[in-house]
Amino acid sequence: MSLAGAGPATGEKISEPWVQLLTPAGVRVPEPHYDSWLEDIDGGRLQGLYRDMVVVRRIDVEATALQRQGELALWPPLLGQEAAQIGSGRALAPDDFVFPSYRETGVAYCRGVEYADLVKVWRGNAPSSWDPYRLNMAPMQIIIGAQALHATGYAMATKFDGAETATMTYFGDGATSQGDLNEAMVFAASFQAPVLFFCQNNQWAISEPVRVQAQRAIADRPPGFGIPSVRVDGNDVLACLAVTREALDRVRTGAGPYFIEAVTYRMGPHTTADDPTRYRDPNELEDWRTRDPIDRLAAYLKSEGLFDDGFQAQVRTAADDAAAGLRAACTGLSDPSDLELFDNVYSTPHAVLERQKQHYARYLAGFEAAEGGQR
Amino acid sequence: MTTMTFGQAINAGLRKALDRDPKVLLIGEDIGTLGGVFRITDGLQKDFGAHRVVDSPLAESGILGTAVGMCFRGYRPVCEIQFDGFVYPAFDQIVSQVAKLHYRSRGRVKMPITVRVPFGGGFGGAEHHSESPEAYFLHTAGLRAVTPSNPQDAFLMVQQAIACDDPVMFFEPKRRYHLKGEVDLEADLSAAAPLDQARIERPGSDATLVAYGPLVPTALAAADAAADEGISLEVIDLRSLSPLDFGTVADSVRRTGRLVITHEASQTGGLGAELAAGITERCFYYLEHAPVRVTGFDIPYPSARMEQHHVPDLDRILDGVDRVLDRPNSLSGLED
């Protein structure tokens, strides 16, 4: 639980201990309380976490490439946040429900998302992709912090239903400044809603460092709302897994809401449309590279004799297959039909919109008739 | 038939909805023990429990945002916004989430939220307590908006709004809460007029006068007064503000050739503008005069001792009627 030398270079003061089970050098730090939440994590499962992170990073890199090649309009990379997302995502039970932001590729991967559904929105084919009720995960949320209220309301409803499930919401450090997140914490505390707030403090809200959002550790804030919190090394997949497992267990068993701040780093741009060289010291990025979540687990696996050539080749193949699968799914998406434009605005007939649709269909039909005439 | 006030009729409608469907839930500020600042939810928490009638923290975005989450879980939340001017903190959740989630989720997640908003002035309220914000919501795809003008409609329409799978902004003309009327408490919901239909409240032949919510009684009184002068006004209660029932209004205007629309809300970008444009598009060759709007001015809602100038009353409506009939009126001789 030592923090020596781990303070982010953004000037944020880390005043509290955090949970760290794996040092940046890959040395396992015993911590009896949280270790008890990892008793089932044997060599195979450790390798599984590594494979997850490598595959998700490969998916992320491939999606960035697809954007550069003009196949996607935009992509929000998760580069650097793999441990926070895989550690927490693998802690979730199938019945738990997730309300994500737009950067939770790793969490969606843990929920079993299909490749096409990772890119459909960013290719511009649809306003959302996966079926929320198949993944138990809401469509991605672009309004910063809005989903925290949705998660809290969902959690209140599970409580009304007497269901023993947890609701989890993901957001970033920027969202902690939003009214919606603060209102969500008030509602969650007042109704003791079974909701877990998971903040990925990746140090940057586009160009604004976290010190613009918070003068104390973000994890210091929830206790003022009556919500217990914990700060975790977000680049340590074991710590993220253990902390989230414990938190979800508390939430599911009636202890009320809980808040996790995962301290991590957005190694890439905010999105492919962003240029972090305009606002970020390159030394900072280099500093965080030494704390890379994947390298750190690799070092640990190596020390445990779990990182032989065969395993590495297997992981490489899995990553290459995922990249190929993503690319094929992306380029294979068929364009939506013209009049889908009007679908699902309402779930019951709406005369004014029907009329607009009919008029536009006639307009389009005019082109078809003209083209037909030329033939 | 039972004689009851407008407010009691909404209360009775909410009670029916809570009885009918265990997934219906009310959430808002002061709606539980107090029964709402207007007592519209009086007694409901006592009878249905604190999990069905939820006193929320004082956070309107929180009310709407948590309601969205409840919809993901199959609930039908009825959110009470205490006063019209308090709806804006919830505006983002209403416009960006409530209105769009059915579309965003490609029909997989329904948002059957009813947002009850007491609206309008004319009762000496403080700032933010007398506004008519409906136009903001008409501009937002994905929302429906309705307003009843009498107790019977209030009783039925609140139940229809709750039963509707789309989100409905339910505007309640608060200065009419004490208006009494006959209500058939056994009325069959499936036999009620559809929620998106306007109603001809009084047939007439010389001009069509369109009103909604709090100004429907005023419009009917204006029609009485006009009749004394031999002018026959057809009064239409829009009931639905989104979608607008252009069919009913256009049918009327094709008969009368003249349209007056009145509302308390400011004029620019308001419902009168949309109705005038839509009717002109549909009925241009039937119109004998440009549509006339009699509305609140483009000012913040004024202080109580000035509000009588802002809220259209019987005389201002009749002045508009004179204008549309080319009779001498306050603007006679004015070029623009």
Low-confidence stretches of chain A: 1-15
Strand content of chain A is: 5-15%
CATH topology type of the largest domain in chain B: Rossmann fold
Q: What's the total number of strands of chain A?
A: 7
How much helicity do the residues of chain A have? 40-55%
The helix/strand class of chain B is alpha/beta
The helix count of chain A comes to 14
> What is the quaternary state of this protein?
heterodimer
Strand order, largest beta sheet of chain A: 1-2-3-7-6
Any idea how many domains of chain A? 2
Summarize the biggest pleated sheet of chain B: 7 strands, mixed
Key words describing this protein structure:
heterodimer; A: about 375 residues; alpha/beta; 2 domains; 5-stranded parallel β-sheet; two-stranded antiparallel sheet; 7 strands; disordered N terminus; B: about 325 residues; Rossmann fold; 7-stranded mixed β-sheet; 5-stranded mixed β-sheet; 14 strands
Structural features, described:
The complex is a heterodimer of chains A (375) and B (336). Chain A is α/β, with parallel strands linked by helices and 375 residues long. Chain A folds into two domains: 32-331, Thiamin diphosphate (ThDP)-binding fold, Pyr/PP domains (Rossmann fold, 3-Layer(aba) Sandwich), CATH 3.40.50; 338-374. Chain A has helices spanning 32-35, 43-68, 82-89, 105-110, 115-123, 132-135, 146-161, 179-190, 222-225, 237-252, 282-289, 293-303, 309-331, 351-374, and strands spanning 97-99, 167-172, 195-201, 204-205, 208-209, 229-233, 258-263. Chain A starts with 31 loop residues before the first helix and ends with a helix. Residues 1-15 of chain A have low confidence and may be disordered. With 336 residues, chain B is α/β, with parallel strands linked by helices. Chain B contains twelve helices and 14 strands. In chain B, the strands form three sheets. Chain B has a seven-stranded mixed β-sheet, with helices on both faces. In chain B, strands 9-11-10-13-14 form a five-stranded mixed β-sheet, with helices on both faces. Chain B is globular, with a radius of gyration of 20 Å. The relative contact order of chain B is 0.12. The model of chain B has no long low-confidence stretch (mean pLDDT 97). Chain A binds chain B through residues 97, 99, 126-128, 131-133, 138-139, 143, 146, 148-158, 160-161, 167, 179-180, 183-184, 186-187, 190, 343-348, 350-353, and chain B through 25, 51, 56-57, 59, 61-62, 64-70, 72-75, 89, 92-93, 96-97, 100-110, 141-142, 144, 164-166, 196, 242-247.
